Amino acid sequence: MVIKCKMCGGDVRFNPGDTIGICDHCGCSSTIPRVDEEQKLNRYNRANHFRRQNEFDKAIAAYERILEEDDTDAEAHWGAVLSRYGIEYVEDPGSGRRIPTCHRVQVASILADGDYLAAIRNAPDAQSRALYEEQAKEIAEIQKRILQISQNEKPYDVFICYKEADENGNRTKDSTIAQEIYYELTEQGYKVFFSRITLEDKLGQEYEPYIFAALNSARVMLVIGTKPEYFESVWVKNEWSRYLALVKEDRKRLLIPCYRDMDAYELPEELGNLQSQDMSRIGFIQDLIRGIRKTIDAGKSMEEPGAREAGGFTPTGGGNIQALLERAYLSLEDEEFDKADELCEAALNLDARNASAYLGKLMADLKVTHPEKLEQEEEPFDSNPQYKKVMRFADEELKAALQEYNETIRARNNSAREAEQADREFAEAIRAYCTADQVIQSETQKMQKISQAIGDTKAKLERLDMELSQAGGLFSLSRRKELEQKIDRQTRRLDDLKQKQADIQSAIRDAYARIPKKPDWQEKAYRTAGIYYENHLIKKAAAEYVLIADYRDVPEIIRNDTRLEEAVNALLPARGEMVAQEVKKSGELFRQAEQEANVIVGLHKTQDWIQRLTTVGNVVEFGSYYRDNNRDKDPIEWIVIAASENSVQLVARYGIETRRFQGDWCTAEWEKSSLRQWLNEEWFQDVFSDEEQKAVEITTVDNGPDQGVPGWHGVNGVTTQDRVFLLSFAEVSRLLAAEEKICRATEYAKGRGAFVRRGDLGIWWLRSPGRNGNNEAYINTDGTCHEYDAMNAGVMVRPSIRIRLDRLK
Fold this sequence. Notes:
Layout: E1 12-13, E2 20-23, E3 29-31, H1 38-52, H2 56-69, H3 74-84, E4 87-91, E5 98-102, H4 114-121, H5 126-150, E6 158-161, H6 173-187, E7 192-193, H7 195-198, H8 208-217, E8 220-225, H9 228-232, H10 234-249, E9 254-259, H11 269-272, E10 277-278, H12 284-302, H13 319-333, H14 337-350, H15 355-366, H16 385-393, H17 396-470, H18 474-514, H19 521-534, H20 538-545, H21 556-559, H22 562-571, H23 575-587, H24 589-613, E11 619-626, E12 633-643, E13 647-652, E14 657-658, H25 674-687, H26 690-695, E15 699-701, E16 720-722, H27 729-735, H28 738-741, E17 743-744, H29 747-751, E18 756-757, E19 761-762, E20 764-769, E21 775-779, E22 785-789, E23 796-797, E24 800-804
Parallel strand pairs: 6-7, 6-8, 8-9, 9-10
Antiparallel strand pairs: 1-2, 2-3, 4-5, 11-12, 12-13, 13-24, 14-23, 15-16, 17-19, 18-19, 20-21, 21-22
Helix pairs in contact: 1-2, 1-3, 2-3, 3-4, 4-5, 5-8, 13-14, 13-15, 14-15, 15-16, 17-18, 17-19, 19-20, 20-22
């Protein structure tokens, strides 16, 4: 009989009667199940296979079937333990040893698990029992570490469960839909766990602590799927099955399956009995948010004040004050600074000497989310009245921390100012050098021309001497004297230029001598250390002095400072590593400066772009789509047609595409049109980057009779919520100038079959209905309104969007 290794799946080598064997592949010791028939062994191997494939629910079910026949089977109990805690054995690249990874951490210790205790109790001998205990202790340490990390995580409201990548490693449609829902919910103020974004700063770390914390704190889980097999995929099912178990224990939780491009009966059996949501249904997101709000608000009303801890900084106070301050610091973390200030003020009404409340008001004033980030402020904040109140009522530890933050800011600014001055002097000297170099090049060119002229004149004089020797005459003698005078003038000019060149070269040498040497990292460390020392930041000064190549060069007055000398000596053992890090950083200075310059240039472009964006009539670029027929995307040009304090409305400058308004024979209504669905889904995802999608606002689109052409078919359409929409007849009349109504087609749109008249001019759809139910309004090439069959494929699309200015980066 062949027994498979629980860790790697290799064959385990053992002798009849043994209770422990050795894997031929990984070399790990493995307990041997008590089997006397091939069929039972196959059940063991099948259960172990499920667990190694991380299909833990299937594995538990398989082990339980074995235990139904024999409840004293230690190996089946141990397999159930490994599956319940989601244990996967992964090879350590350094040692080659198989180490456990926990994918389903539990609050209860594995050492208290009933199946573990049963495995110990029913172990066939002491050797097997010792191996179970050894492996369980290793898992318990991992479990303890995960729980410690998870306790520092803030609670979540919603957990989004979905499949990120398909079998080819490409991003799934599920991921895109989940991200859109994530943005919608975060805009509503909810804290949402969405692994693509939430875990992006956790690369190189274990994800389980953060997933565990989110699963256990979230009130609602959304399971997103567009294919039945995606709902059943290993890690998706791992998450929703764990949450389903929490729902059974806590009825205040809610799990909502959200499906699309499939039927509800194709959902997994465990989810089939739950109230699910069809994501293709109009109004889905509004219904979803309403259900989430109802569940979360009901849960919060049942919580005791302060039941969900903020984590991190712990404000002082008691009773209602404690609850107010916890809410205030949570609001600071969520950048709700006005709300945080109000909560701190309410706490001060109960305790006018509460330092934590004054600290919260200080952070709200400075728009700081965590106390330790005060050190990152651009200027010292000790003149702030809230700071003075904190220093009046705080304990010594908090006072010292805030004082050090201010001194660090001052030292950093002093160092930055000195560096800026050195950079200015360097740039000025370089400019002087370059100017002198340009002048000398220009004068050298003049000298070359004069030297050539002197040579030409001398040649003429030689020809004249030849003529005189042959013929003679007064005329030739006069001509010779004239040429001699010209040579004399040119020679004097050449001498003047040579002197000027010598003066310029001297100026160049002086300019070059004035160019200061750019400080290297050692000089910078020396200068920074002095600034820290002057500001009484002894430890920081010592850290800089340790980097200097020869500590004996430190000025005598500083070396005589006992505090500094002790601090330096304490750091000397780590000096080699510190110097290596500084050398590495110095080698990257130019690249970093170049990147920072690019960021500044990009910022200026953004600021200029936003300024243009807020003026009606301007043309701006946003998103990208096909313009020519070469299949490369180009920026889309938009006309600003309306602007308010917080948002602007744009309409495409050109007809960017050619499509039917409605794909089927039915009433032409914007709400049900295939063009609306395409613009808000496929086109929106294809055209805008992730950052641009965040800036596009969901617009409440009015489709009432007053938006149509007076006297035409007045469908009282349903108000829709759209990111992308077409203009109505009323909006065109109100927002577009006469020349803006006339629209040109892009080369791509013409290639797609656009009706083009009068050169490149084409007709474009409105969302307003025509005279009868099957027709839709459009704008002609002369700017007038007509109607066309909604299924006509030759009409251009000219989309409109609204952009929120506060979401632009």
